[in-house]
Amino acid sequence: MIQSAIGVQALQNQLYQEVKWLSSKNLAELLDFVGYLKYRESPKSAPQPVILEGLWEAIHFDVTDEEVRALRQQLTKQTEDKFNGLFS
Prior knowledge:
The protein has a domain at about 5-40. Helix content is about 60%, strand content about 0%. It contains 3 helices and no strands. The N and C termini lie far apart (about 60 Å). The model has no long low-confidence stretch (mean pLDDT about 90).
């Protein structure tokens, strides 16, 4: 919402009048909220991608597809057994 300069000044004056009566605890809470509003309105930069290429290239990792498949089947069986044990 875009406010005219006079409207913004009137809002600032109204806010000042209201803030004068707050306790120090509430002023601290208001300050935290203002910080949040500033954060929310700040332009967000796009997150930088994490480059994982070559991360493990120096590590000898010799696992076959068959070994991965067997391990996956073993874990699936163990999970099914635990799940079935909960309801039997």
